[in-house]
């Protein structure tokens, strides 16, 4: 058994299916009686007033690193690597602001993290033991984003499309797509790729259960 949790990062463009991949991995690992923690980078958006100050009166770009509380997330990853519990921030997308803190979360044996910029930022990337990039076609990603933002976040279709053109796509090309080079494994189509899911699951289990403290891949 490992002395510290194995940290697995899952990255992909907005609507790529990285959340589904992360959730499926958690299910697979828990079926094998492995204690697993799932974290999403979206919970680490910075408080609204801080974000506004960083953009200095300009429209907020929610896909830029300045929109996130990177210092807090890096500190939480470091704490989890030490086997310590964290309190994840609570974020309300309907008001675009942090609203509080969750209950203490122990790391367990495996921590699954998913988010846009995990590989693009060295303060986060360097703490990961395994890095997976979910590669999905742009047309599928925008359709999924429209469905999610209109149904779950109360956005209008026009606002979703405007944001995609002005910030989501440019930031994807600047930060997300280039970060693919840091991935240990690229998964086309996402959770539907059962072979890739089997490979990831097997690798995590072999590292955690058979080899003691995980080695970087």
CATH superfamily: P-loop containing nucleotide triphosphate hydrolases
Total count of strands? 7
How big a fraction of the residues is strand? 15-25%
Q: Strand sequence of the main sheet, in spatial order?
A: 2-5-1-6-7
Shape: globular
The protein's oligomeric status is single chain
Extract low-pLDDT stretches.
213-217
Q: Kindly give the count of domains.
A: 1
Q: What proportion of the residues is helical, as a percent range?
A: 40-55%
Protein structure class: alpha/beta
Order of helices and strands: EHEHHEEEHEHHEH
Mean pLDDT: 91
Number of helices: 7
Taking the sheet with the most strands, its summary is: 5 strands, parallel
Nearest-angstrom radius of gyration?
A: 17 Å
Distance between the termini: 18 Å
| CATH class annotation | Alpha Beta
Here the CATH topology equals Rossmann fold
Fold and architecture overview:
The chain has 217 residues and is α/β, with parallel strands linked by helices. The chain has one domain (6-210): 3-Layer(aba) Sandwich (Rossmann fold). Helix content is 41%, strand content 20%. The chain contains seven helices and seven strands. The chain has helices spanning 18-31, 48-55, 70-81, 122-125, 138-152, 157-176, 194-210, and strands spanning 6-12, 36-40, 86-92, 97-105, 110-114, 130-135, 185-188. The strands form two sheets. A five-stranded parallel β-sheet has the order 2-5-1-6-7. A two-stranded antiparallel sheet has the order 3-4. A hairpin with a 4-residue loop joins strand 3 and strand 4. The longest helix is centred in the last third of the chain and has 20 residues, at 157-176. It is globular. Residues 213-217 have low confidence and may be disordered.
